[in-house]
Amino acid sequence: MATVPVTDATFDEEVKNSDVPVVVDFWAEWCGPCKQIGPALEELANEYGGKIKVAKVDVDQNPNTAAAMGVRGIPALFIFKDGQVVSNRAGAAPKASLQSWIDDSI
Fold it and tell me: Which PANTHER family does this UniProt record tie to the protein (predicted)?
């Protein structure tokens, strides 16, 4: 399962109302660290299959959701489970670290 682009309009439907845990990546095209973790998140989305969803929110195109979540720097990652934030972290990290964080949170 590939990453899912999410917008201000689809955030509630794709993230808060999801029946599986969702990793949300707040990112931007111009953000170097965001581009660093992008491939790892894509791989993790595929490796977890239908167990989790990995959603990507472009903060430049969807500022309302980023503001509502209190995102001040990117990449900002949140894990939602049953519509609620259960964990969050900021900054780039290696794939193994991201995977460990996801496993500990879901």
Answer: GEO12009P1
Number of folded domains that form the chain: 1
* CATH code for the domain of 68: 3.40.30.10
Whether 79 sits among the annotated catalytic residues: the reply is: no
**Which residue, 41, 33, 16, is CA-closest to 73?**
33
**31 counts as catalytic:** yes
Q: Do the strands 22-27 and 53-58 form a parallel or antiparallel pair, or are they unpaired?
A: parallel
* Per annotation, catalytic residue among 34, 41, 44, 59: 34
In contact, 105 and 78? CB cutoff 8 Å: no
68 burial level (CB within 10 Å; 0-12, 13-18, 19+) = exposed
pTM flag (> 0.90): yes
The model's pLDDT over 19-71, given as tens digits with 9 standing for 90+, comes to 999 999 999 999 999 999 999 999 999 999 889 999 999 999 999 999 999 99
Domain span including residue 86: 4-104
